Amino acid sequence: MGTGADSRLAERLKSLALATKRDYSAGHERPLGGYLAAMAGFGTYTAAWATVVRLRGRPLPDRPEPWDVFLTAVATFRLSRLISKASVTSPLRAPFTRYVGPQGPAELHEEARADDGKDTVGELLTCPFCMSVWVAATLTGGQLLWPHATRTAMGALTALAGADALQLAHAALTDKATGGK
Predict the structure, then answer these.
(1) Is the torsion defined by CA of 53, 57, 61, 66 positive or negative?
(2) Cα 125 to Cα 25: distance, rounded to the nearest angstrom
(3) How far, in Å, CA of 151 to CA of 147, rounded?
(4) C-alpha to C-alpha distances, 57 to 21, 60, 117, 151, nearest whole angstrom
(5) Cystine design at 131: which of 80, 102, 110, 125 (Cβ 3.0–4.6 Å)?
(6) 28-42: per-residue pLDDT in tens?
(7) What are phi and psi of 60, to 5 degrees?
(8) How would residue 16 be classed by pLDDT, with cut points 50, 70 and 90?
(9) CB count, 10 Å around CB of 76?
């Protein structure tokens, strides 16, 4: 008796999911299943960090220190762009993306591959905004488990972001001073 009822429930849920996908996508191909898997993966990832922090008996701060928030924000920005846009990290993205062309200084424009379920991973790997959620979670977990090493790495990433800003400012000023020559 349970098997038939389970089968009917499964069919109803599948039908509901397909109707929701059809109604939501408005004729466009949207990888909702991949996004659902990514959300589940992120939930599992953060739960794993929380479990390790708890098992190691590391205390949670009452509130984040403003300096740590700033350092985490800048380091997250820089590492997210390094992972998702840098030329040097393109081999990590290549199995899930397709090269389109250059995009800014030392950055690439790539598109997610639509084959074999690689589209969601490709979108994640080429979107610095999407990647920043994972990077911020990683840096936060790192601060709880290995605060000195993580802050040192975040300081280096923040210095790199500052150096990038100075390089771009220098190029813009040089371009303005020379009239673009």
Answers:
(1) negative
(2) 22
(3) 6
(4) 43, 9, 39, 20
(5) 80
(6) 777 788 888 999 999
(7) -90, 140
(8) confident
(9) 25
